[in-house]
Design brief:
Elements lengths: L1 H21 L4 H18 L1 H14 L5 H23 L14 H8 L5 E5 L5 H10 L4 E5 L5 H12 L4 E4 L3 H10 L3 E5 L9 E4 L2 E4 L11
Parallel strand pairs: 1-4, 2-3, 2-4
Antiparallel strand pairs: 5-6
Helix pairs in contact: 2-4, 3-4
Length: 219
Amino acid sequence: MRRSRLRWLLEYAFVRGIRAALLPMPAGWRMRSGYFLGSLVHALLPARRRIALHNLASAYPEKSEEWRSATAKRSFQHLGRLAVEVLFLDSSRQSTAEIDGWNHLESAASGDRGYFLMSGHFGNWELLGNLQAARGYPVSMITRPLDNPWLERLFSRLRESSGNRIIHKRTAVREMVKGLKAGEQVVTAGQMKLRNGAPVTINNSVVPANSRTPTPAES
């Protein structure tokens, strides 16, 4: 337990240090710093890099190794930029952004009942929730609590800075029902990893997403 607390403290100090270092910078410089951080993680974590390359080889066997290597690096860079954007959710001003299909959200919100919003785990879904709150449509976001309690408190504060509400997965069912009854919009993002190896078809080959023993219901 003591070792875990020390690791949590170091992780928290690292994240707060990055935020403090980037805080005086213009937004454009911050984004370039995010790309640099992503490139650094790509270079320093070979195990994660190998996982990305393996996944790309499974999904795109027809592509060259050079293409997969470049795509993996750009993915890390994108995640670095996303991480920096999340660190500054409390200072983002996204209310002037354009969203295709915004009329569908307004139509759903015009009723007297709550509703679900489904989002994929791509792009910056965190900024989207921030944007909706800035336009007067705060959301109740279903999230998995981080293992590090200090980082969890930090990111919860950032996510809720624009008026959104966090629903942890451990109490999701009860809180979702309460939110829907109160007329709230509840947001959940689709997961890329399926539990207990539910099979996924990739290029006509059935591949277990996690373990090799999916339950009958998941099969």
